[in-house]
Design goal:
This protein is of the alpha/beta class. 29% of the residues lie in helices and 22% in strands. It has five helices and six strands; from the N terminus they run βαβαβαβββαα. It has a six-stranded mixed sheet. The longest helix is centred in the first third of the chain and has 16 residues. The chain is globular.
Length: 197
Amino acid sequence: MARRFAGGRLVIASHNPGKIVEITALLAPYRVEMLGVAELGLAEPEETGATFEANAALKAHAAAQAARLPALADDSGLVVPALGGAPGIYSARWAGPKRDFRLAMERVHRELDDKDRRATFVSVLALAWPDGEEALFRGEVHGLLTWPPRGDNGFGYDPMFIPDGYETTFGQMASEQKYGLDHRSRAFAKLVAACFA
């Protein structure tokens, strides 16, 4: 059974503004005082893990140790079976040093060519405490990749991902609609049930 979050301050272990906005919105009902690693002057550690779980835990533990507060980290990405699971844990790196996801989406499209366009968005949330304890929660959503990208909402690969059962991309969806069905909100539902509810 996961350890309960007793309230108070929580460090969001991310430098990605889009993720911080989503996490803040998802935790808003729980009266948590959220602090970003950037405002605390903490660097993001190098992601050396081989899985989403390992990288999320690495980031959460680094922030929890440095801030001496509980920390929440997300590691997420796009998994395309026809590309051998790529970009996977390297999803952000495919966007280059400037995090240009237009380039990343173009690369996915180019490498897929006429291959199967099924894909899965994966998000793993790690909640870590300064004493070293952690809890991990995984969320997934399956869908199809489309080209050209559609919509300006969301971030990352959202404009090219159409979730199963829909005809619009995550990039075309209002945030309220996306929050109910995307990979991060599915991981959050598990986190909240285990640690906040």
